[in-house]
Amino acid sequence: MRKKYFFFFIIVFIFVYNNSYSNIEERIVAKIGNNIITKYDIMNEVNTILALSNKQANQNELSYLQNIAFNKLKKKLIKENEINKYKITKYNKGDLNNYILKLENNMGVKNIGLEKHFEKYKANYEEFIKSVIINL
Hints:
Elements: H1 2-20, E1 28-32, E2 35-38, H2 39-53, H3 62-85, H4 93-107, H5 114-120, H6 125-135
Antiparallel strand pairs: 1-2
Helix pairs in contact: 2-3
């Protein structure tokens, strides 16, 4: 019986300990339709912009980049809402592959790949691909 309580206490302790150190701030910045834009989304978009431009973060440009990122996210969500409204599910996968290859060539990251390049900038590659698909 004591072992059950001890085991339960250990599980609760681990759960509480792990949650107390999560530091990601998920503040909601805006709502577009049924979707929201969080501070995390904006920072990910800023990292994506930096990755695509092959630039390092500059404190002086941060506010400017956040405004650009916010506007890009608004446009993306509006397009996504329209795609869902009209139930569009098809896109040309060849166009997606060609776009990625062309981007890798233009940026000079063909040898490491675009996904690894995004990791270097802490940008979410899957979200980038999702936004490219929305634009297609």
